[in-house]
TrEMBL record:
Pfam families: TraB_PrgY_gumN
Keyword terms of this UniProt record: Signal
The species this protein was found in: Deefgea salmonis
Origin: domain of life: Bacteria
Keyword Signal tagged: yes
Name recorded for this polypeptide: TraB/GumN family protein
């Protein structure tokens, strides 16, 4: 069960990225690639792979260019440091000691929530103890496919099997912070809205996966701007601001954290595809920090 929590955290942060892009981003030109070479003077090159939480086996497969870049990397990283201590800390943060969500949410909505959380790999005994913000996090992640290893887990597995040094960019606390920062008064209305619109979110996510298969970050960016949630008008402004602030703050932190492996060079890191495009996206911020980025494409 702890392993499922770990995968769900990465999935939820990926899915959060797929809902946090500001509504009006300037076009950043051609971004038709999921693999990017990162270079700076007098430093060996590094690589960024745009990752996605996918239920499509084809999308989960690494391209030949990606495998070649992995083969030359000395350091391999993901957004979340996936170790047992982090997973335990995450579970403690997400769960209450006593079941309370049914009472807080209400019987009717709780009954609808149970199968949605179960489809993400968790039994009713876990759902009953979820904090409202943790249930929101779960629903903002797509339903996982059985027997499909998430991309971040594959990168960790590759690093272990090939003797490469592994690193995580963010801690559990940093990854959970955006959800914990949702105002208490807003958590239940947002959770009810997610329950009502979960099927619509799944449909939009399939379009995002299709764009990823085409290695088209520009199309992903456009799809991210679709407001899939039918929030009450009174809640739309704070939700939009929450999305924007989270997107910008995460990219600022990620750029700062990446400077250490990128100054070493020979580093390969997987970052959510949603964090890359746009004028406030990771690619633009890395260029502003003095790095040269080149797109690499190859057929699936």
């Amino acid at each position: 069960m702890l392993a499922r929590f770990s995968s769900s955290l990465f999935a939820a942060m990926t899915a959060l990225s797929f809902t946090v892009v500001p509504p009006a981003l300037a076009d950043q030109g051609d971004q038709s690639a999921i693999l990017w070479k990162v270079e700076k003077a007098n430093t060996p090159p590094s690589w960024i792979l745009a990752t996605i939480q996918t239920t499509d086996g084809q999308a989960a497969e690494f391209t030949p260019s990606t495998m070649a870049a992995l083969g030359g990397a000395k350091y391999i990283g993901t957004e979340f440091h996936n170790d047992i201590n982090s997973v335990v800390d995450m579970a403690h943060a997400m769960l209450d000691e006593k079941p309370s969500l049914a009472q807080t949410l209400g019987a009717a909505d709780y009954a609808k929530l149970l199968p949605l959380i179960e489809s993400r790999g968790y039994p009713a005994s876990v759902t009953a103890k979820l904090k409202p913000w943790a249930a929101i996090m779960m629903l903002l992640s797509p339903r996982p496919a059985k027997d499909l290893i998430p991309m971040d887990d594959r990168l960790l597995k590759y690093s272990m099997e090939n003797g490469r040094k592994y690193f995580g960019i963010e801690s559990v606390e940093q990854q959970l912070a955006p959800y914990q920062a949702i105002p208490t008064a807003k958590q239940i209305p947002l959770l009810k809205t997610l329950i009502k619109n979960e099927a619509k979110l799944e449909q939009n996510y399939k379009l995002i996966v299709a764009a990823y298969l085409k290695q088209d970050l520009n199309q992903i960016q456009k799809l991210l701007q679709i407001e899939a949630l039918a929030l009450p008008e009174a809640d739309r402004a704070w939700y939009r601001q929450w999305r924007t602030d989270t997107f910008n703050q995460r990219n600022t932190v990620i750029v700062q954290r990446l400077q250490i492996p990128f100054e070493k060079g020979d580093s390969f890191v997987g970052i959510s595809a949603a964090q890359l495009p746009g004028k406030e996206g990771l690619l633009a911020k890395l260029r502003a920090a003095g790095y040269r980025l080149s797109a690499f494409t190859s057929a699936k």
